[in-house]
Amino acid sequence: MGKNDEICITGYVTVLCFLLTLLSGMVCGQGCSPKNYGTNKYVCVCNATYCDNLHPPEELLQPGYYLQYTSTQKGKRLQPISMEISTQAPTTGNVWNLSSSVQYQEILGFGGAITDAVGINLGTLSNDAREILLNQYYGPQGIGYTFVRTPIGGSDFSLRFYTYDDGIADRTLSRFKLAEEDYKYKLPYLKYIKQLSDPKVITAPWSPPEWMMEARNATVGFTRLKDQYYQIYAEYFVNFLQAYQKEGIDIWGLTAQNEPGDGYYVYFGINSCGYSPEEERNFVANNLGPTLQKNNFGKVLILGCDDQRTVLPEWAEVMLSDETASKYVSGTAVHWYFDDDYPASRLTRLHDSFEDKFILYTEASYIPGANEPAVLFGEWKRAEKLAKDIIDVINHWVSGWIDWNLALNTVGGPTYLNNNLDAAIIINATANEFYKQPIFYALAHMSKFVLPGSKRIQLDATDDSGIENVAFLRPDNIVAVVLLNSNDDARSITLRTDANTYIPVILDGHSLNTVIYNKA
Ligand SMILES: *[C@@H]1O[C@H](CO)[C@@H](O)[C@H](O)[C@H]1NC(C)=O
Ligand SMILES: *[C@@H]1O[C@H](CO)[C@@H](O)[C@H](O)[C@H]1NC(C)=O
Ligand SMILES: *[C@@H]1O[C@H](CO)[C@@H](O)[C@H](O)[C@H]1NC(C)=O
Ligand SMILES: *[C@@H]1O[C@H](CO)[C@@H](O)[C@H](O)[C@H]1NC(C)=O
């Protein structure tokens, strides 16, 4: 796989860079090959032979030192500096206490999605460039993704509407088979990343076969599963799990439906199926849950909702307060699209009522504003907004975050519905290269440093400087603190550790930072 050499070289560059930083205090590059699309609009360009990579941060940690990684609007990308931890309390400025013994939720991980559109775009790259791209997310020098989401059948990021049993009613599912898209666009890449880091696979259907639904009218919306097909549809899930298992892909978790609320929108247009919370509860309790168990898929986790937090906590309460449904449901899946309009306190209310059920974000992407292209090259504001939301929801009990399409083309597609979107990586097929957008780094500041099994810990941020913050204790006893400065000017704060030592941090204007140090 010709790319390993390059990753090694980049790794050495990082080590050199680190030593130089230690010796001279100078900041040096991380190997991002920048391309500029206007003032402060940088992407990092990667191709078949080159991509910026991260040396494993924990290997660079020296006793008595901390590491700070910074990305900025002005163009830094995960740039490390290393500084000595101080035993002296600062005489001025804000001191924020960290208490690693005060622990909150456990982190499950971070990830993105492989849709048909992603597979189509990956197919436009040369083999080497494609493998480098997937390594950026799931490889040893990538950003540490441990989740991948993939649709059951077609989604809006497909080239057509399809399920695994299209045509006239087929009560025995005799026609069930995976689609050409599974073999061309999804399974090859799921198999590839499985051998890189074996991420947890989470899935959901966008729609059942049309014959299972009340008269489908995509113009008007409101489609739902017909009562007589609830059990047959549960068996359809089993067929899917078996077919993927035969291909070597085991599913970690699923939801009964992607955005069940969409089916209730008039003129929604995207493949969907409407469930009320009561209908989803009934389907899971009476059909899906027991049918998975009976067919040896009882280990596959079922999550509820998979929709905007607009419907929380009420939706989840319907599912989780039902004794039978609750037996089968491990947690609640949430999408980020209306987070601006509905406060994160809804997540805390949900957590407080059902402390043993986790909350996981399963989809996020930018919906372009009116007259705005879907893809904004090098747009830092999007990175800042994303980072702010991730920090916010994790401070409200969320256990992980899954981004939407891993890679789209230069106009944010393809999709047969023309609902193009931005993505962390944009592929330029003509040039056989891809661009790592600022949002790639916003995700990396979490995913690379906050390992699965980390616990969120107490951080007393005592001033109103507008620095978004969240802290974790990792299973390897490293503390990771993520700090976002959305102000134009630099800010400085001091972190006080449990060991009564002090970490002075300077946060550049419009910067995202991750600080790590050994707790013990
Ligand atoms: C790939 O990127 C590297 C680093 O920017 C550059 O030196 C090289 O020429 C590029 N290769 C191609 C084929 O464009
Ligand atoms: C931080 O801890 C120190 C030492 O225990 C204490 O004096 C100080 O009041 C704490 N600050 C806050 C804001 O809790
Ligand atoms: C969908 O519903 C609209 C409004 O009632 C109607 O005009 C249209 O003909 C329907 N389409 C189909 C395919 O039934
Ligand atoms: C894609 O690559 C082509 C060929 O190098 C170049 O002309 C074009 O500007 C690139 N597109 C973007 C969005 O950078």
TrEMBL record:
Recorded GO MF terms: glucosylceramidase activity; hexosyltransferase activity; signaling receptor binding
Root EC class: hydrolase
GO terms for biological process, alphabetical: alcohol metabolic process; autophagy; glucosylceramide catabolic process; lysosome organization; negative regulation of macromolecule metabolic process; protein catabolic process; regulation of macroautophagy; regulation of membrane potential
Pathway(s) annotated for this protein in UniProt: Lipid metabolism; sphingolipid metabolism; Sphingolipid metabolism
Keyword Transmembrane helix on entry: yes
Domain Glycosyl hydrolase family 30 TIM-barrel stretches: 107-450
Protein family membership: Belongs to the glycosyl hydrolase 30 family.
Record-given protein name: Glucosylceramidase
E.C. numbers: 3.2.1.45
SUPFAM superfamilies for this protein: (Trans)glycosidases, Glycosyl hydrolase domain
